Structure formats: structure tokens, C-alpha cells
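Structure record:
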Amino acid sequence: MSNNTLSAIFSELSKLDDDTFPPVEDWNPPLCENVSMRIDRSGKWYFMNSPIGRQRMVNLFSRVLRLDKEGYFLVTPVEKIQIEVEDRPFVIVDFEITGKNKDQIISFKTNTDEVFEVNQNHPLRVETRKTDNEPSPYVLVRKNLEGLISRNVFYRLVDISEEIEGVYGVFSSGEFYTLS
């Protein structure tokens, strides 16, 4: 990754507050090849097969992430880098609940410190993996980028779930989200 890329990322992000993201969908820079980046299923980021140890750097990179038809990319105004994502780019690591019953609101926290409410803009869904029949729970974090709900968080959700007409799920923001 060039110094121009890092400078462009820092420059763009320094203009934003914590709740806004750069307009990566509007940028169409050339592809920077010969750079290997990936995110494993647990949410760990790697650069050239070495783990990225600085959480601040991971959080920064996550803000310029985009999913196109061709895959995931880190995008700046001057270049873009393809990034391999093993499952989903985010992992849900914790949650809080405010309110009760149908009026409760579940707020998720990602491995990159984003916090958002489960609602119509951030729906929760569960797929069953064909390989082993295990559930893979996901939530829409932003735009078309999803997060894998960690096993610990999913079990905690199952523990507080309700059964409605034979289906287990949780309420958040007035909606019922199934967990099966």
C-alpha cells in the first residue's frame, strides 16, 4: 500500500465526524494490485499475511470498505485495493437491550466499534449452512455490508428469545426477528 493511499484515507476520514462515512460508492479510482489483504471469519484483519495489530488502523480501514459485484474493496479517491473476506467483513461482538418485550431495542457493537440498533435499516437474518446445518446469523451493518453475529452473542440472543407460533426470535424496534 502506498503512502498516497494512507494519506488519502487519513485525509478523507479527518474531515468526517464519527457517524458519517466517506462517499466510497462515488469513487472509481484505479485498482492497486500486488497488495494482499484479508479478513478472516473471526473478524481479524491481515495485510500481506500478517495480522494488523493496531485496532485503530482496522477501524480506519473498515470505514472505506465497499462491496461491489467483483468483491470487497478498500477505496480511496486515488486507488482501491481488493480485500478477501472469508465470511463477512464485520463481526458482532456485543449487544445491549433497552426497553422490554415488544418495545425493546437491541443495539449491536461490531469488532470495529460501530454501534447500531437492530431495525428495518439493520435487519437480522439467519442462514443455515448447507455443509453442516449450522446457523449463520447476520445483520446488515451499513449499505450492503453485513456482520456475522459471533457465536457468544447469538447464544445470548437465543437465551432471551421468545416463541411465537412455534418460531423463536427476538423483538427489536417493533419488529420480530427469527433466530432459526
User: Anything to note?
Assistant: The helical segments are 3-14, 55-62, 151-160. The chain has a mean pLDDT of 90. Residues 3-14 form the longest helix (12 residues). The CA atoms of residues 104 and 122 lie 15 Å apart.
